[in-house]
Amino acid sequence: MSQSAKISLEFFPPRTEELTAMLEASLKRLLPYRPLHCTVSYGAGGSTREGTARWVRRIRQDYGIDCAPHLTHVSHTRDEVREIVRDYVEQGVRRMIALRGDIPADGVPEEVRTRGYSSTVELIADLRAAGIREVMVGAHPEHGGGDSGALSSHLEFVKRKLDAGATLAITQFFLDNDRYYRLRDVFAAAGIEHLLAPGIMPLHNYRQVFSFAGKTHVEVPAELLARFEQAGQDSDAVGEIAERFTLDQVRDLAENGVERFHIYTMNRAPLTAAICEALGLNASGPQS
């Protein structure tokens, strides 16, 4: 296994006192692993705009870890986005994750259609012009079913974002490593495999993760589903299956040359900490 694994950690803004306490406990446990940076997600339609900004500021100031806010543009005009970005730049933020975001159930507002961005490519150009040095974007190992033709088409779109100034593509989570390797091969053929990082979703709550998978066209391995179904309500067995699968997944990736991991923590610490330990990180060692 590679001894030079590096991680970044994703969190989401909590909406209740209980979830806030859980996030604070997770930050205290996980940030001593000294991730390269953290990210804080952005709710649908900008619903967590203030919460995202507040937690980015807290992580940067209280823990001394660089933090990148997510920013979606589907519900904002260009002027609104530029105001958001200006505030971040004034705070010293130089990393962001640029995303389209989910289209609202009632459609994109007319004002945004006429005064917003037509694509994430345009948003990336604006972020770089505003002083954001590192812009991360999404990639999807199972785009169009994950066959070579679909992935080649997907690469062209991701490459447009990279050409516009994006510096790293982070994948949607996946539960079959072969899906990631196929996408990496497509990136490698284009000479840009170093600009791809896998997104890892620890199975803290397998039912929740499998629900996400169904909504985002991520294939759940039949064997994994069967193992959880066989475990039934046995919480110890479920926990053991989840931990074994998660750690086997990241170990396999590391043994096959992956050195950079982005972990979707879901604000929970135990499995994420186990991943860090499995990758050879310790809770006091800096990364570079």
Categorize the overall geometry: globular
Kindly provide the radius of gyration, computed on alpha-carbon positions and rounded to a whole number of angstroms: 19 Å
Which range best describes the helical content: under 10%, 10-25%, 25-40%, 40-55%, 55-70% or over 70%? 40-55%
Distance between the termini: 18 Å
Q: Structural class, from helix and strand content?
A: alpha/beta
Number of discrete helical segments: 11
Physical arrangement of strands within the biggest beta sheet: 7-6-5-4-3-2-1-9-8
Element-level helix/strand string: EHEHEHEHHEHEHEEHHHEH
Poorly predicted regions are: none
Strand percentage, roughly?
Answer: 5-15%
Largest sheet, strands/sense/barrel: 9 strands, parallel
